[in-house]
Amino acid sequence: MAEMGTPAGGATPGPGVPGTAGTSTKQPMIYICGECHGENEIRPRDPIRCRECGYRIMYKKRTKRSILIFSPTYESQSCN
Question: Which Pfam families match (predicted)?
Fold first, then answer.
């Protein structure tokens, strides 16, 4: 018999249990429709379908985080 407060036999802990990711509090992701190119906000349990045309192929929108890449500059050395 399982003790009170302990999940029995491999049960998955609920959303209020520490150490689990809060999937119910996630913000909707923005996806772009492959047909009409409209932006759609889709939550984790929403069907993957465009709200404008009903197309089912969606692409995740790219992030707007800028990345700065430094490339090494080599100075030409003269051999005298």
Answer: Zn_ribbon_RPAB4
